[in-house]
Amino acid sequence: MLMAAGFMLIICGALVHILDPYLLIFKWKLIFQEGSEIFNLWRTPPVDLYIKIYLFNVTNAEDFMSGRAEKMQIEEVGPYVYRELMSHDNITFNDNGTLSTRPHHPLIFQKGLSGNLREDDVFMMPNIALLSIANVAAKQPYFLRWPINLLIRQTKVQPLERQTAREFMYGYPTTLTTLGYTFLPNWISFDKVGLIDRMYDFDDDFETFFTGESSASVSGLYDTYLGSPDLAQWNGSHCSNIRNASDGTKFVSFIKPDDQLLFFRKSMCRTQILVQNGTDYDVAGLKATKFVFEENALDNGEVDPRNKCYCRNGNCLPRGLVDVTSCYYGFPIALSYPHFLDADPKVLAHVNGSRPDPKAHRSHFMINPVSGLPLQLSVKFQINMVLEDLSSMAHCEKFSKLVIPALWFEITMPGLPKSLLSRFIFYLKILPFGDQVVKHSLLAFGGILLLVAITKVSLTLSSAYSSAYRISNELRDSLW
């Protein structure tokens, strides 16, 4: 009986090692199903997600516009901190292992985290509406430019103007935007222009994500955006592909060494490739792999020829700038890293005051490699205006062929809340440890029982042999 029990325990231990019930259960829990724990966490992430916004105040606006100063002098002001209440709404489960949803990202200003800064602070900043309309009109024939120039002169609107922080970020109605909204509805479908307002315009967006039904590791990753696995503004799969990218809520699970990930936010207008930058990290008790943007991601083909597909209409911007005009309603907008970090030095020469700092301005992601759960993240980009020849536009001549930094932002999640952290420590540390204890205990206990059984059998056989030997000797003696 002991030997049979020992064999059974060893077999059970071996089967547990082979089948790995913990892994099977964990994979099952990763699959999105109505009411499941991981699905509910993804649908409305219970995390502290913030966007920190830094504005650029032009301190010599009058001197620059009058010609007394050769360059604009900018001064960083911020951060203005907003909490982002991210959620996936109007969810429909599809028959092909995906679900459809509409993203929702409302922002709430955080006075306590913004220090002494308030949304009604006034600064001298670029007039986004005027410069955008001038950039479009400058390419038009004279008879189309003339009424716009007349309106600019009559209203005395200037390319740099005093605005509150909120007006600059969220926009305010102006004569020019009202005119554009009225007469150019195919270009401007709104009556105010604010960079954050446009950046967080998700009204018409719809997306599909994998549920993990076919492969648990890809649950929560993009299948399509606006009905396609490719972003319409780029040509070629290297630049356009969005499939298997993360929106930052959950990344691919069971990450292997040297695996690269994809990350997408609408404000970036493209996917970014994430590469590993170290695996031996601990974030609040959970194992983490550090990911960063791949080197030369914003080089437009100068270093990596594949990136030439980010050149809009064949026009390649200098290294460090990505033309996102198509994502910002035709406005002459380009993204860079904050303060033109890693950009071509000639880009920094357009204005005075940019101070790129790799420690302060580089992005990173701390991701648990088993679950794909982001434990900490910091995503940093800068929004710039890249202007063409404006010499034919009233009041805008000085801004011809300039790259003007407008603002930079950091989307950050400093860590998981305690309630969520304790839950994942249980799933990712305590349960696996218990699983190993059970596996080794079954093998060890089975081995002990088997050893006891073998010893007992050996002793029994030895005793029987001794008895037989003694009886044999006694018979032999009696015969003699």
UniProtKB/TrEMBL annotation:
UniProt keywords, alphabetically: Cell membrane, Glycoprotein, Membrane, Transmembrane, Transmembrane helix
Intracellular or extracellular location(s): Cell membrane
One GO MF term attached to the UniProt entry: scavenger receptor activity
Signal sequence extent: none
Principal location: membrane
InterPro entries, sorted: CD36_fam
Domain of life: Eukaryota
Stated family: Belongs to the CD36 family.
Name under which the protein is recorded: Scavenger receptor class B
Annotated source species: Anopheles dirus
